[in-house]
Each structure stands twice: as C-alpha cells, then as structure tokens.
Amino acid sequence: MAPRSRPTARQVRLGTELRRLREAAGLKAREVAGLLSSTSAQMSQVEAGFAGVSEERVRRLAAHYACADDPLVAALVAMSTDRTQGWWEEFRGVLTPVFLDVAELEHHATFLHEVVITHVPGLLQTPDYARAVFGYMVPELPESELTPRVEHRLRRRAVIERDPPVPYRTVVHEAALRIRVGDREVTRAQLRRILDESEREHVTVRIVPFDTDHFAGASAAMMHVGGPLPQLDTVLRDSPSGTAFLDAQSQLERFRTLFRKVERASLDPARSRDFIHHMAKEL
Questions:
Q1: Digit-coded pLDDT (tens) for 174-194
Q2: For the chain, how far is it from start to end, CA to CA, in angstroms?
C-alpha cells in the first residue's frame, strides 16, 4: 500500500502512541521491524501516520512491547480499524486539512472542554457571526472560500446535536460577548443562540465577567478533546501560525489544571445565563 500523502491528526496520533510504547520498551525501530517482516523505514512511516497498521499488527506490537494496558491496546486497535467517512470528507480539497482534523477529533470525542476569550465558541456560533469572523480575514477570502468555511463551522455543531451528544463545557470571557464581530442585530442573535444552547442538558456555558478579581487567564484559550482514555486526550490551541495539536502527558495535565482554574473563576451556569440574558436586553 502506498504511503499516505497527508495523514490525518487521528492517524498521526495512533503512530505517536505506537512509538511511545516502543520507546517505553527501550527498543529501536530497526529492532522491531523484523517482527512485522518490515524495515525500519516502514516502521517510521507507521509511527508518523503515513502508513496504516492492522489490528493484528497493533496487538503483536503491544505484546512485543510488553504493554499490559488492555484498555489502551483496545483503544489503539479501534483507531487503527476505524474507517469512518464523516461529513467533513465533503470538504477535502476545499478547505485546508486542519479543518477536517478538528471535525474528526470532535466526532470521536468523549467530552469537549473549551475556553474562549475573544470570540464566541465555534460550536455555538450563528451563521452571521461565523461569516463575520471569516469575512474579516486578511487577505479577504473570495466567496468560494468563505462559504465553505461558514458551512463547515455550522456543521461541526453535529456533535452537540446528535444522539447521543458529546458533553460540552465552555468558559467564555465577557470580552467575547461584548466584541461586536457583526452589527448589533448579529450580536443580539448570537447571545440568544448561546442562551438556547445552554438549555441543553449536555451543554454547560459559564461566563468570566470583566470585573472578576485575580483573573490572569487571558491566554488560556483552548479546546480539550477527551479521548477514550485520559492519555489519549488532545488539546487544540490556535495561534496566528495555525492550530497546534498537543498530546504529551505533561501538556495534557497542564491544560486540565488550567481549565479547572478558569472554570473556578467563572460564574455558575445559572448566573451565567442571567448575565447573558441581561446583556441581550441591553442591546
């Protein structure tokens, strides 16, 4: 089978976890290659996500690495055999791969924890709000690129609308609600959308007001995507250079702690709804 030209984030993660198991066993790629009648170069492709790996090979590798973590092995097998062709595949070749990677990660998530400071969370955005966000990019996007980005953002909502939904908790700073990405009517409609979504049993929205004392979490924006096991979680962080997918255990623990700190600084869900409702009435 020819190597993949561009593995997905999920495929890369599977390879990363297999490499971690090998390194924990103190083995080199060339020492393991013979087990699979392979070469060290082919092993490197597997561990980089450029080559697939069967269930049988995953189990053989885990046994060779003396991995006794049965739930982890089962999770890796599930990743290796997954053939899901989700709605995001419709955008392949239309949007950059990171859009598809985010949607695929959300689809497989066991929970989603998000902190946003300057923009309303993507999963809660209205069409007009999303269009205003993407329409502000420099250089300006042509309609042929703007429309698919808005559609993709709206379709990501499937994870909180499906049955069963993915549990979603978000902490939103007041700044994200005050900044008028669109006009007054767009802002009002966006606040109503957040209120409506916060009524869902599996959606929790909490607000950090401007007047919160001792809040230094302005750089805490992130999405924590729950995996089938805690060690398979992923944290997404956006920057001007793109979206980073973080999965080192020290990074995951850092962002778990950061999310808890930001959540403690926020209003409880009931007070947050009152806060948003009052803002909507002011407009």
A1: 999 999 999 999 999 999 999
A2: 59
Angle at alpha carbon of residue 100, lines to 94 and 103, rounded to 5°: 135
Q: What is the pLDDT of residues 30-65, one digit of tens each?
A: 999 888 888 999 999 999 999 999 999 999 999 999
| pTM, to two decimals | 0.95
Half-sphere exposure of 244 (CA within 13 A, CB side): 12
H helices within 92-126, ranges in order? 97-108
Return the residue matching tokens 């593995």.
7
E strand map for 27-72: none
Specify the 3-state DSSP secondary structure of 116.
Answer: strand
Q: Report the interhelical angle of 9-24 vs 97-108 (nearest 10°).
A: 70
Classified as helix, coil or strand, 225 is strand
Q: CA 231, CA 218: separation in Å to the nearest integer? A: 26
How far, in Å, CA of 55 to CA of 76, rounded? 8
Torsions phi, psi for 18 (to 5 deg): -65, -40
* Token pair for 107: 């689809």
Task: Provide the residue type at 210 as one letter.
Answer: F
In the predicted model, residues of the chain with pLDDT beneath 50 are none
User: In this structure, which amino acid lies at residue 156?
Assistant: R
Q: Which tokens hold the place of 51?
A: 């080559």
Residue keyed to tokens 């599930």: 78
Contact 1, 51 (CB under 8 A): yes
- Encoded amino acid at 124, one letter: L
DSSP state at residue 35: G
Return left, alpha or beta for 28; rule: phi > 0 is left, psi -120 to 50 is alpha, else beta.
beta
